[in-house]
């Protein structure tokens, strides 16, 4: 069965798209709905869906930020961008390497996208993105954003203030998120999905459902005998696993 996730910062629109898909493509299993870029990355890491419908603008990470982290990976979903821009703004995007849907989504247009997806999936076509199209989408969706630069981490009765530039990686630990630097490990209550919406996506990459690394801290990327990828970060001996959905980022290195 083909699987999908939907992420839109307007819950009613995510639900409306799910309902349209249920009618137009009954065999499609919509595994989960999310409402931010952090949600999208978490759901892709957790479910490795075949398709991801992503709002071009969401709180925190945009749909394009998410796409940049997963395109060309071994288990990358086919990305469908959902946008409120009118037809005239995106007439140049007919290449369809990344398909798009205009809000509000119309049944007729959705049927076209479904046919393209079925053809692509049946042919085993690669999920690689046309970079010119991708950059054009990024430019029209760009908004000035401020990213998290400091973290207040509890340590007993005290609070440690840690600059994000000192962080090697974040890792989910039960009810907390571990903040790991070269010389300390502290904790915040903010889940990784929410942290991702505040971190600069060019500086921090999700590599696993439970791990986010700082790109500048990467020392080495390794594969074991069965092809599983791990990252060695400067300042720690811990090897951070990379799930299949995120391997594509390391092909640029």
Shape: globular
Order of helices and strands: EHEHEHEEHHEEEEEHEEEEE
Q: If helices are DSSP runs of H or I spanning 4 or more residues, what is the number of helices?
A: 6
Using only CA atoms, what is the Rg?
Answer: 19 Å
Count every beta strand, where a strand is a DSSP E run of 2 or more residues: 15
What class would the helix/strand composition place it in? alpha/beta
Give the spatial strand order of the biggest sheet. 2-1-3-4-5
CATH-scheme architecture of the largest domain: 3-Layer(aba) Sandwich
Q: Into how many domains do the coordinates divide?
A: 2
Low-pLDDT residue intervals, each spanning 5 or more residues? none
Query: For the report, how would you describe the main beta sheet?
Result: 5 strands, parallel
Helicity level: 25-40%
| The named CATH superfamily of the largest domain | Response regulator
What does this structure look like?
- By secondary structure, this protein is α/β, with parallel strands linked by helices.
- Helix content is 26%, strand content 30%.
- It has two domains: 3-141, Response regulator (Rossmann fold, 3-Layer(aba) Sandwich); 150-252, LytTr DNA-binding domain (OB fold (Dihydrolipoamide Acetyltransferase, E2P)).
- The strands form four sheets. Strands 2-1-3-4-5 form a five-stranded parallel β-sheet, sandwiched between helices.
- β14 (229-233) and β15 form a beta hairpin.
- α2 (37-47) runs parallel beside α3 (63-70).
- The longest helix is centred in the middle third of the chain and has 17 residues, at 107-123.
- It is globular.
- The chain starts with a strand and ends in an 11-residue tail after the last strand.
């Amino acid at each position: 069965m083909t699987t999908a996730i939907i992420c839109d910062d307007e819950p009613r629109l995510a639900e409306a798209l799910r309902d349209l898909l249920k009618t137009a493509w009954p065999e499609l299993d919509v595994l989960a709905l999310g409402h931010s870029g952090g949600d999208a990355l978490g759901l892709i890491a957790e479910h490795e869906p075949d398709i991801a419908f992503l709002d071009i603008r969401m709180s925190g990470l945009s749909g394009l930020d998410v796409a940049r982290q997963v395109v060309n990976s071994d288990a990358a979903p086919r990305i469908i961008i959902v946008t409120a821009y009118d037809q005239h703004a995106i007439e140049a995007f007919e290449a369809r390497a990344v398909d798009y849907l205009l809000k509000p989504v119309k049944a007729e247009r959705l049927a076209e996208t479904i046919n393209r997806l079925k053809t692509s999936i049946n042919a085993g076509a690669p999920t690689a993105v046309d970079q010119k199209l991708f950059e054009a989408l990024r430019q029209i969706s760009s908004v000035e954003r401020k990213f998290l630069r400091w973290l207040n981490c509890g340590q007993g009765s005290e609070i440690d203030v840690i600059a994000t530039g000192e962080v090697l990686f974040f890792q989910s630990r039960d009810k907390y998120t571990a903040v790991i630097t070269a010389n300390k490990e502290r904790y915040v209550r903010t889940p990784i999905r929410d942290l991702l919406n505040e971190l600069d996506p060019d500086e921090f990459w999700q590599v696993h459902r439970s791990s986010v690394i700082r790109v500048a801290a990467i020392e080495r990327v390794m594969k074991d005998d069965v092809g599983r990828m791990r990252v060695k970060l400067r300042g720690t001996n811990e090897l951070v696993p990379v799930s299949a959905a995120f391997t594509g980022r390391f092909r640029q290195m």
